[in-house]
Write the structure tokens for this entry.
Amino acid sequence: MLNASRVPVSLEFFPAKSPASADKLRALRPALYTLKPDFCSVTFGAGGSTQEGTFATLREILAEGVPAASHISCVGATRDTVRAQLQLLRDMGVKRLVALRGDLPSGYGATGEFRYASDLVAFIRAETGSYFGIEVAAYPEMHPQARTPQADLQAFAAKVRAGADSALTQYFYNADAYFRFQDEVDALGLDIPIVPGVMPITNATQLMHFSDVCGAEIPRWIRLRLQGYGDDSASIKAFGVEVVASLCEQLLAGGAPALHFYTMNQSTPVLAVCEALGWGVTA
């Protein structure tokens, strides 16, 4: 049985969009802190549209005594705006970043001064040296906009060579995709921890939509089982816990260095998976 005390865990939140949702997020974090996360990351909206909410959430997490990591994206950004963000994050006490290319907001034409996430990583390193730990994204099933798996792998390699310390993957439900990607990275001589991103399953319609947008593959047997449950949310959630806990067991048994949970600003689904892993938490 796995022991939570020896499995490094990190958590991702997104900025609340209203005072009520901010209160809800504030109330649920303590339960997730029982997992003793290495850090909690907070996302940016497309083009940095939720920047103020991101910084406010980071401040709260830091005040709660938990290390915080800020997403930082290069779409629409300039060297001056990124430089200002880095200084603000340093002043706040943030020491870890998740550096991404990011998404363009709807109707947004300009792409800014950084073309790729590797350019952003290189700039952060040039500006701040080794002050920040830098996480980058990895796509075991290929980035949806990549031309080929080989091109996607080379784009990942460019981020590592630009100065990334570790990587967080897009979520997936096929452990073989992760292990294959790890083997390909190893073959390039890139010595970097690749932490699998884990998405609990709670809502079939929402999961299908997210997966279509981000290119994550839902194995046919999972998709059919979810469709078969119809509107039976209790069965969907129970099935989701079983599937995701089994995936986590496979990943950890195969040498994954940690787990990064996409919480979707909910505590119960993550804690239910951890309970199924035998970590002694309660959902």
The longest strand covers residues 68-73. The two ends are 18 Å apart (CA to CA). The chain is about 45% helix and 15% strand. Residues 107 and 271 are 38 Å apart (CA to CA).
